[in-house]
Specification:
Helices cover 33% and strands 11% of the residues. By secondary structure, the protein is of the alpha+beta class. Strand 10 (450-454) and strand 11 (460-467) form a beta hairpin. It is globular, with a radius of gyration of 37 Å. The relative contact order is 0.11.
């Protein structure tokens, strides 16, 4: 079977390091992506909305200004009842109020001066502008009335002009200057922001990458930023690394009834301490340009299946708020991998410490914390990561460069959310991928490399911007490791560096050799080096079920369903008398053996010493798997 033409072409372009035009991104779109839970789009009532409502209340209503003009014209007019009556014994017409007279006159001018008009009361002034124009030009002609009792007349025009109280001595047409009762103003949103211009200018490159206007406005106070979520979310620390801390905001039970909050979902927040501009902290923590590069990568990889969904980036200043500090202490007391300093320690972090907070969708549990037990899970995890890398290579010449087990997340696609179940209906209907129902997501691009070659409208950019990080300054390549797993990880970092410097993973560069800018170059085989690391860990930790008994069973009468003889073994096991049946343990074990044999062959293909030389990127490996029938094109071009 010929190799997939699209992937072969992509891999050839990548091996030659030829820049390409934009390709279609296969997979989920960015529409309806929940973003910025804590910003103005949050369903929680923000202080900004409160301020807008307060400002609106301070503005004089338009209809008050209109009625002021109406009342100025009132003294110049005399209103009489135009209803003829020949019965002097009829009861007297009730005296009309001023509002009723105004409505009467308006209706008369719009219809006819001699038509009887029935006064109507309304709760709101409808067509007020029309009434005002009518009153300003109306010439009312007094008419004879049948009886003096029926004459409704306003007092004659006074000797001096009538001046409404609310306008005092202001001339007609002047805007209303009514004095209002002073009210207590709510806290202005500006109080939530740091007003130091130097600080805001320092982190402006990060703020320019923000999605919402509130996040882009400036540096926020850490406590004020966190306070907007504390009414509906509980803060939980879920991981940490050399970059900083990772927290999750879990929706409280009493807030789950809020539809908008359910749509937003629970978010994951990566809190990264930023390097200070000068003084204490200016020689440690993460640089501004490194955060900018990571945010750009998050935006670029967002629509690709298998990569994290980006929401927002925030910059805050100050110490951890109470909810985050409490979550940090719980993690410290319950986990054995808490190595970062206590955020409350003033020696570790200054009172004016700057933090970048990357907000993303919850991608599930980290692979290093997940205990896989079946070959179906191993198969889905490995090929899920491989296909995601192949798509990223096609789109942006992407290398992850730090793809350890903590940077791969898993979640179930099953309705019940089970992580340890298999979809037996797919045992014979697929090539083996997707049976476990596990979905993989690649996270953390702080060490990654990619080309930002396209504008927002998809047009190729005039100048290519490369997002990358200088790994030679990260002190990743000298550590040896304390156990077998850590030794394998540290060796993988060195293999990756060798590939970039010498073109051979097993040939190290000269002692102390460094080349400025070398980490900007594209070497996609580093993705295969990390896939080899992942596969070794997955196969090493697999827990096989106990072998089934080989005792022969008594002969059974031959089934009358002759169709089963023409079906594959798994389909025959799933169909009997028209009803689906669960495949036997022997059939499941046979499929697992098939999948394991495929992955063992991948180990040989990726072997650094004896593997195939024509495997130079993840796209090559995926194309090979499709040609062999291990994957289908639908698995790669998923919707």
């Amino acid at each position: 079977m010929p190799r997939n033409t699209m992937l072969v072409a992509a891999s050839e372009r990548q091996c030659r390091k030829v820049k390409t035009t934009q390709k279609r991104v296969y997979g989920k779109s960015k529409t309806n992506a929940p973003r910025a839970v804590l910003d103005g789009s949050s369903p929680l009532k923000s202080r900004n909305n409160v301020m807008e409502q307060h400002t609106a209340r301070r503005q004089p209503p338009k209809k008050e200004l209109i009625m002021d003009r109406v009342e100025i014209q009132i003294p110049k007019m005399t209103f009489e009842d135009t209803t003829p009556s020949s019965d002097e014994s009829a009861p007297a017409t009730p005296v009309k109020t001023l509002a009723e007279k105004i409505e009467d006159l308006s209706l008369q001018e719009k219809t006819t001066k001699t038509t009887k008009v029935t006064p109507q009361r309304t709760s709101k002034f409808e067509d007020v502008s029309v009434q005002t124009e009518t009153l300003a030009t109306a010439q009312v002609t007094p008419q004879k009335t049948a009886a003096p009792q029926q004459v409704n007349e306003v007092s004659p025009v006074p000797s001096k002009p009538f001046t409404p109280r609310r306008l005092s001595s202001v001339a007609p047409g002047t805007p209303n200057t009514k004095r209002t009762r002073p009210k207590k103003s709510p806290v202005h949103p500006a109080d939530d922001y740091v007003q130091d211009e130097k600080v805001n200018a320092y982190v402006r490159p990060i703020l320019n990458e923000a999605v919402s206007s509130l996040a882009a406005q400036g540096v926020q106070k850490f406590r004020a930023w966190a306070a907007r979520s504390e009414r509906a979310f509980d803060t939980v620390k879920i991981a940490e690394g050399s970059y900083g801390e990772v927290f999750k905001l879990r929706l409280r039970d009493d807030a789950e009834r809020r539809t908008k909050l359910r749509i937003y979902g629970e978010g994951v927040f990566k809190v990264v301490p930023l390097r200070a501009q000068q003084g204490a902290g200016s020689k440690k923590f993460t640089r501004i340009d490194e955060i900018v590069a990571e945010v750009k990568l998050l935006k670029l990889m967002d629509p690709i299946p298998g990569f994290a969904r980006f929401r927002e980036v925030h910059v805050v200043q100050g110490r951890f708020p109470e909810s985050f500090q409490r979550a940090w202490m719980v993690y410290k007391q319950t986990k054995d991998d808490c190595m970062n300093p206590n955020p409350a320690n003033k020696r570790a972090y200054a009172d004016n410490q700057l933090w970048a907070i990357l907000e993303m969708d919850d991608a599930g549990i980290e692979l290093e914390k997940f205990r896989w037990s079946t070959m179906f899970q191993v198969y889905d995890i490995f090929w899920g990561v491989a296909m995601a890398l192949a798509r990223a290579e096609e789109l942006a010449l992407f290398e992850h460069r730090d793809l350890h087990l903590g940077n791969i997340c898993l979640r179930s696609t099953r309705p019940d959310g089970a992580l340890d179940a298999i979809d037996t209906a797919r045992l014979d209907s697929s090539g083996g991928f997707g049976i476990s129902g596990l979905e993989t997501t690649i996270i953390d691009y702080s060490l990654s490399r990619a080309e930002l070659r396209f504008n927002d409208d998809g047009v190729a950019a005039e100048s290519i911007e490369i997002a990358s990080s200088d790994l030679d300054s990260k002190q990743l390549f000298d550590a040896i490791g304390r156990d077998e797993d850590e030794i394998l990880l540290r060796d993988t970092y060195r293999y990756m560096r060798n590939e970039l410097y010498t073109g051979n993973a097993l040939t190290p560069p000269a002692q102390g050799q460094t080349e400025p800018g070398i980490w900007r170059e594209y070497a996609p085989k580093t993705n295969l080096i990390w896939l080899l690391f992942i596969l070794k860990n997955l196969l090493k930790s697999i827990r096989r079920p106990a072998e089934t008994s080989t005792t022969r069973t008594p002969l059974q009468p031959r089934s009358s369903n002759k169709i089963n003889a023409q079906l594959s073994p798994i389909k025959a096991a799933c169909q009997s008398d028209g009803k689906a049946q669960q495949p036997s343990a022997q059939q499941i074990r046979k499929m697992e053996n098939t999948l394991e044999a495929r992955l063992r062959q991948v180990l040989e293909l990726l072997d650094l010493e004896h593997g195939r030389d024509d495997m130079c990127c993840a796209a090559d490996l995926v194309a090979f798997a499709i040609d062999q029938g291990w994957l289908s094109e639908c698995d790669f071009f998923q919707s």
